[in-house]
Write a structure and sequence with these properties.
alpha/beta, Rossmann fold, 2 domains, six-stranded parallel β-sheet, three-stranded antiparallel β-sheet, 6 helices, elongated, binds zinc ion
Length: 204
């Protein structure tokens, strides 16, 4: 039975690294392709560890059923798709991925963040939670500064945590320096940055 899998985790949980590894392994014996959206390297999947591979760049207009059918026509087979940054996909696109699994018997491996900096489910991740055959939480022991397991992504503007704003930020040079940090829920809610960051800020 083919399957729609959703592997989710915080930033730094190795999602892209795992996506690249699965693509590499499956490509050895099967036919399929990588997709991504808003990756740090453009039409690639790139991991924080420095590995990258070419990928189909997804935008909201991409139809995954068409994409899968095109691959099948060009290569004579479609065994799998690996989809990174799936939190950004639309509801319709997640439903298309489910159809690729059900109608074309391909395995679809999706990877993404579960919640945004506001602590809300990303639309694509919510739909995957509803439709996926398997939901897998990635565990790589990411920690908050207090050493509790990190479960939330905090957005910081000039070092201060913020809770409002667009989910996808386009850097137009007009905004404060935006960074992200992993926090436990307690410190994501309180906004406390921890002693090390405070010292650095004083030193800087
Ligand atoms: Zn904490």
């Amino acid at each position: 039975m083919s399957s729609l899998r959703f592997s989710y985790g915080t930033m730094g949980s190795g999602k892209s690294t795992l996506a690249l590894q699965i693509h590499h392994n499956l490509a050895a014996t099967g036919s399929g392709f990588l997709c991504s959206m808003h990756d740090r390297a453009g039409a690639h999947v790139s991991s924080a560890l420095g590995v990258s591979a070419p990928a189909v760049e997804v935008n909201p207009m991409v139809n995954f059923v068409d994409l899968a059918a095109n691959h099948l026509a060009a290569h004579g087979a479609l065994d799998y798709m690996v989809c990174d940054e799936a939190q950004f996909y639309t509801d319709l696109q997640i439903e298309q991925l489910a159809r690729v699994v059900d109608e074309m018997s391909a395995d679809v491996y999706t990877f993404g963040l579960l919640t945004d900096f506001r602590g809300k489910l990303f639309p694509g991740s919510a739909r995957l939670m509803e439709l996926a055959n398997e939901r897998i939480e990635l565990q790589v022991q990411a920690r908050c500064w207090c050493n509790e397991p990190a479960t939330h992504n905090a957005r910081l503007a000039d070092g201060v945590q913020i809770y409002d704003g667009d989910v996808v930020l386009i850097d137009d040079g007009q905004i404060a320096e935006v960074t992200y940090e992993l926090r436990c829920r307690r410190h994501w809610i309180s906004g406390e940055a921890g002693p090390v960051v405070d010292q650095l800020r004083v030193a800087g």
